[in-house]
Amino acid sequence: MRLKIVGSAAGGGFPQWNCNYRLSRAARAGAAGISQRTQSSLAASADGRDWVLFNASPDIRQQIAQTSELEPSAAAPPRSTPIRAVVLTNGDVDHVAGLLTLRERQPFAIYAATQVLAVLEANSIFNVLDPAIVPRRVLPPEGELKICDANGRKTGVTIESFAVPGKVALYLEDSALPEADFSSDKGDTIGVRITSDKGGGSVFYIPGCARIDAVLRSRLDGAACLLFDGTVYTDDEMIAAGVGEKTGARMGHLAMSGETGSIARLAGAEIGRRIFVHINNTNPVLDENSSEHAVVRASGWEVADDGMEIEL
Ligand code: MLT
Ligand code: MN
Fold first, then answer.
1. Which of 4, 65, 71, 215 is most buried per CB count within 10 Å?
2. Helix, strand, coil content of the chain in percent (nearest 5)
3. CATH classification of 2-170+178-306, choosing from 3.40.50.720, 3.55.40.20, 3.20.20.150, 3.60.15.10?
4. Torsion of CA 35, 36, 41, 44, to 10 degrees
5. Whose CA is nearest to atom 9 of ligand 1?
6. CA 42 to CA 231: how far, in whole Å?
7. What residues in the chain have per-residue pLDDT under 70?
8. pLDDT for 183
9. Ligand 1 centroid to 30 CA: how many Å?
């Protein structure tokens, strides 16, 4: 199986359009050891020809232009794409807005949990993707599914979806419920285990996750590769940076550091490669020369950047 990290940043990208924090400034200036990144997306292929996209980011046009595997091949018809399906892991803007760019009556299939399909249904702008051409299919809350193209032809990619602790998209939050549970696992955010019919082990893709409990930890045990929520390094980092009032936990994102952070919670787990994705523009690990980056690397983790390839 081939995997490509199409976009490694969290919502907003890196640099974010209105962010004047030191990291976004350094990224704009082209500082050494600080690479610009587009918003959260992953591509997987069993045969290197047909691709399944996980999340459709607002940067998708740029991402396709930077990823030759996702462009129409020379021998293909005048309108064509190797993207056979798009799997959505939640309804966040950084994961669904790119669907609008994929209009043009081009067949592919959309897979998402019922909650996320309800968002597409409720917002008629998504009808630019005519369901007769771009079928919408339900991802079960738990279970395995062979990902097929619009015509039902298998892509060779199989996923197992499962709910992870998280929350509804920001624009769906009920302001009357300020104390709502932002680490519930009702299926608003899912994780996926991806395998190929060509073998090669399994990869977990979990770009959003509020908590690693015993169930999730044992599920991840034995994976060849884990791509995990790397939004923030410390829970209060956005507040400390002066860019927002929310903690990572309030946004449904588990911090990398700390006793309950992802690095500590997964220490000792049997996982081949562990790679942080969905990295926010306040996260100091974006600077390869930072002490936090060194801690992450010394703990056995990698920090994704755009275009990173993984072969299993
Ligand atoms: C998130 O991951 O928390 C969201 O993408 C935030 C957002 O909507 O910008
Ligand atoms: Mn996000």
1. 4
2. 25, 25, 50
3. 3.60.15.10
4. -40
5. 11
6. 16
7. 178-179
8. 75
9. 25
**How do the domains of the chain map onto residue ranges?**
2-170+178-306
Q: How much is the pLDDT for 4?
A: 98
Over the chain, what is the mean pLDDT? 96
- Taking alpha carbons only, the member of 192, 200, 193, 196 closest to residue 157 is 196
15: preceding bond cis by omega (within 30 degrees): yes
pLDDT, one tens digit per residue, over 253-312 is 999 999 999 999 999 999 999 999 999 999 999 999 999 999 999 999 999 999 999 999
Which residue has the CA at smallest separation from atom 7 of ligand 1? Answer: 11
| Listed residue (181, 110, 113, 111) closest to 142, CA to CA | 113
Question: What's the pLDDT score for residue 179?
Answer: 67
CA 202-205-209 angle, 5° bins: 135
Residue closest via CA to ligand 1's atom 5 equals 11
